[in-house]
Amino acid sequence: MTNHWIDIRNADVILVMGANPAENHPVSFQWVMEARERGAKLIVVDPRFTRTAAVADTYAGLRSGTDIAFLGGMIKHILEGGLEHRDYVVNYTNAPFLLSPEFQMPGDLDGLFSGYDPDQRVYDKATWGFQKGADGVPLSDPTLQDPNCVFQQLKKHYSRYDLATVSSITGTPQRKLQEVYELYASTGQPDRVGTEMYAMGWTQHTVGTQNIRAMAMIQLLLGNVGRAGGGVNALRGESNVQGATDHAILFHILPGYLPTPPANLPTLAEYIEKFTPKTSDPKSANWWGNRGKYIASYLKALYGENATAENDLAYPWHPKLEPGVNYSWLTLMDKMFEGQFKGFFSWGQNPACSTSNAGKVRTAMGSLEWMVTVNLFDNETSSFWRGPGVNPEEIQTEVFLLPCAVSYEKEGSITNSGRWAQWRYRAVEPKGQSRPDAEIINDLFFALVELYRKEGGALPEQLANLTWDYGPRDARGKVERVDTALIAQEINGYYWSAPAMRAGLTENFTKLKADGSTSSGNWLYSGSFTAAGNMMARRGTEDPTGLGMYHNWSWCWPVNRRILYNRASVDAEGRPYDPRRAVIAWNGEKWAGDVPDGGWPPLASDKGKRAFIMKPDGVASLFGPGLKDGPFPEHYEALECPVPGNLMSSQRINPVIKLWFGAEGDKAADVFASCDARFPLVATTYRVTEHWQTGVMSRNTPWLLEMQPHLFVEISKELGRERGIRSGDPVQVVSARGSVDALAIVTRRFKPYRVQDSTVHQVGIPWCFGWTTPGVGDSANLLTPTTGDPNTLIPETKAFMVDVRKKV
């Protein structure tokens, strides 16, 4: 979230799209309801009429996989109506920047941007740049009239997204599109503000990143980023997903969103040179220019006294990626399927149910020599070898199940969707032989170090030289019991008075150095545990602004700032656009209110800096050349869809997505079927309130299982009549990859859509069930395809094709 949960109550208009917070974030949904009590309007756009939609002022249905068309129509409505927040757009976005005259767009090139290589299915981005002056600063036109400026190119691109075309793609009636567009675009006024709430309904598509980009662009055009009641707000699906991402659960980043080093950058100097952006613009803060300080402090946190100037701060020991190799989840599972792994740690997850095309994943596990699963209960992953259709005698994989403690049986922090890091204490001791994850990792670490000592191996320094000062040690030097507070302090960071001597906790990341004299396990969390104590454990309820920022409750990264890019909430003189909801304000000497995005004076001052400090040019990107599939979002159909073509162009699918079957592969496990009479129904997956993720916890909680006891599929009353299916009937849901048995729920929550002059039916199925719980059905991910967004490779589980067949 750019903002935070409580801040939602400050909005005038709330758009929920790609999410269902009333059911999936029910506690936090109180802030939506409070906003409505204050007079805010709630818009819900969803293929299904959800419990969130039931309390909306405006509901619009749309066919899964068509969000960019829907949002593109809104961008057209804003630009052609002159409804943008002009002062904000000129000062805080790259709308005035002049693009290369050679840049071309899908309207010019039949669905493609300039530079496309059809053989390699990638873009050469040489034309995706700005015209620059002799000083290297992009040329700009603050009047926004130059035909090559971003604003005019944006307007041209989305001029194609008229109401009739958008309606024919999405199935949303034109009058409903107009209603949504008018209401949300009303927040372009300085005294009004709108917020957006999204979740996996946006991300799990082959255009998932561009879905979010499209909404971010709308928020920038309306001036809704950096302001109270605004922002682009991801609703995390688990209480610590934000914290896990901050601390590098993804392969391509280190803690604090530092790039993972590739093997072709063998020295720290080369890494810093490669990944530190530069700018010639004196108005740009270019905060990532400090990356050298953050990577050096991270290495010092890992290797402590063993990280010295003489050994390049231990950078040569750090694990590195093979250049150009993608280690995303779908890729890993594919390599496992091909037999390229000997072993696999499945820690706190259940990929036999959670991964797209789960049947392929279950087969892949049979190619392993060993697998370690760390979980609360037995599940479909740890017991894959005895699953449906599997002969245990044919499986050679040795499986180890390590029981671990549940969250309230261990101490530590969680970071919620709004970036608030909150400390939780252990409520009870772990049951039986289960242990906290940190204790299991601690034992594993010392066992591996001992194996390296006895048997040797490649680069033992990588592991053996790590600092591991997380608790008292026994006579052999092993940490006896992990103290998570010591881990939190290492993450915060230390001063080092000498290479081998810590000299106190750092106050915040502005104190970090690039010379090895400071350490920080994650620069973003520097300031979370200081000499003043554990800031994450604070529970102060003071709120002097009245905006719900509560600066003394927990701690929020970065530097306890509650709203990101908050200097964009004021004009160039430092005056709040909306004084009633002033996030910060310049008092002539300093900023008052939230912790500002830097202490520089307002933009109009000679010493002023632009508000978007993490961008090299200091402004937000309406034109975003960093993505693999285009600098502006463009509508493409899902890999599997019900229509033969894309109404926007002859390019049906995202032109740069990875294809495991067909153009780039031929494994039958990855087959897909689009516009296929065997699979005529659009399907999407979702969660239910009563179950958690794949259900490993909740299916083992009897009262929750009683409330939602069986896999179901929701279908419309119209489809039920057409197929002779009634609520409660046993049915089979079938895709090109597999099938599941379910119970039918015939409901008004789904309605047929009119798409390209045809009737298109949509169905929905939850993904929280699995075969280890008797009599409940199996995972909906047995149906979903192997494909994903080209920028993240997140799977496309929210739009695929199935059939629903009544069982007789």
Could you characterize the architecture of this molecule?
By secondary structure, the protein is an alpha/beta fold. Helices cover 21% and strands 15% of the residues. It has 20 helices and 30 strands. Strands 24-26-25-30-23-29 form a 6-stranded mixed sheet. Helix 3 packs antiparallel against helix 6 (163-170) and helix 3 crosses helix 7 (174-185). The longest helix is centred in the middle third of the chain and has 19 residues, at 437-455. The chain starts with 12 loop residues before the first strand and ends with a strand.
* pLDDT < 50 stretches: none
> Number of helix segments?
20
Q: Roughly how much helix do the residues carry, as a percent range?
A: 10-25%
DSSP strand tally: 30
Keywords for this structure?
single chain; 808 residues; alpha/beta; six-stranded mixed sheet; five-stranded parallel sheet; 21% helix; globular
Summary?
It is built from 20 helices and 30 strands.
SSE blueprint and pairings:
Blueprint: E1 13-17, H1 21-24, H2 30-37, E2 41-45, E3 58-60, H3 67-80, H4 86-92, E4 116-117, E5 122-123, H5 150-158, H6 163-170, H7 174-185, E6 194-198, H8 200-203, H9 208-221, E7 232-234, H10 241-246, E8 253-254, E9 258-259, H11 268-275, H12 291-303, H13 329-337, E10 343-347, H14 351-354, H15 358-365, E11 370-375, E12 398-403, E13 412-415, E14 420-424, H16 437-455, H17 461-464, H18 484-492, E15 494-498, E16 501-505, E17 518-519, E18 529-530, E19 533-534, E20 555-556, E21 584-586, E22 591-593, E23 681-686, H19 702-707, E24 712-716, H20 717-723, E25 730-734, E26 739-747, E27 753-755, E28 758-760, E29 762-766, E30 800-806
Parallel strand pairs: 1-2, 1-6, 2-3, 6-7, 10-11, 11-12, 23-29, 24-26
Antiparallel strand pairs: 4-5, 8-9, 13-14, 14-20, 15-16, 15-17, 18-19, 21-22, 23-30, 25-26, 25-30, 27-28
Helix pairs in contact: 3-6, 3-7, 3-9, 13-15
